[in-house]
């Protein structure tokens, strides 16, 4: 190995070490992935220049994995930002959810129960009994308890017909938040908008019932 290559290997090794330490201290997943990709890129150089196939192969495998995860997280944050700034849609959450189904009349959860997950309705109708609100497909529900002090359900949800749903646990929600706090910021904005929408629906239901009583 020539002196120039030796100096290159030494410099790349030190820089790789710095990048690895930086990734360990990164507080967000995006910064961690970027630092890890830099370390992997330099690891490829070190492995190729030194002829160490184990190092070369390891970093050749890790680099595309880190790149894929980085793209996924950036796509997630961008999707949540668009949702928070635009229409109230949560399609971006589907890849992180799990499919399930319930029969007509089934009780999904009851008001006051301890909550551990949120749902997205894919097919069918879900009624929030206390509110008199019927949720259409595409609605995210059951997430409110995540932001309450005691973590209890704020309403009863019952299937009006056979329903297909997606679910995500609160623990998975928290993992997404800790991987990137920006995700949590946009999620809170969405929840606030959901609360505003629910209040408008409640006011509309109350007004309709009042008019029915007057006309009865």
Low-confidence stretches: none
Q: Based on CA inertia axes, which overall geometry fits?
A: elongated
Termini separation: 96 Å
Largest sheet: 4 strands, antiparallel
What does this structure look like?
This protein is of the alpha+beta class. 57% of the residues lie in helices and 15% in strands. It is built from five helices and eight strands; from the N terminus they run αααββββββββαα. The strands form two sheets. It has a four-stranded antiparallel β-sheet. A hairpin with a 4-residue loop joins strand 4 and strand 5. Helix 1 runs antiparallel to helix 2 and helix 3 runs parallel beside helix 5. The longest helix has 35 residues. The radius of gyration is 25 Å and the shape is elongated. 23% of the residues are buried.
Topology:
Elements (H helix, E strand, L loop, with lengths): L2 H23 L3 H22 L2 H33 L12 E5 L4 E3 L7 E7 L2 E3 L4 E3 L4 E2 L15 E3 L3 E7 H10 L1 H35 L1
Antiparallel strand pairs: 1-8, 2-7, 3-6, 3-8, 4-5, 4-7
Summarize the model shown.
By secondary structure, the chain is of the alpha+beta class.
Structural key phrases:
about 220 residues; single chain; about 55% helix; alpha+beta
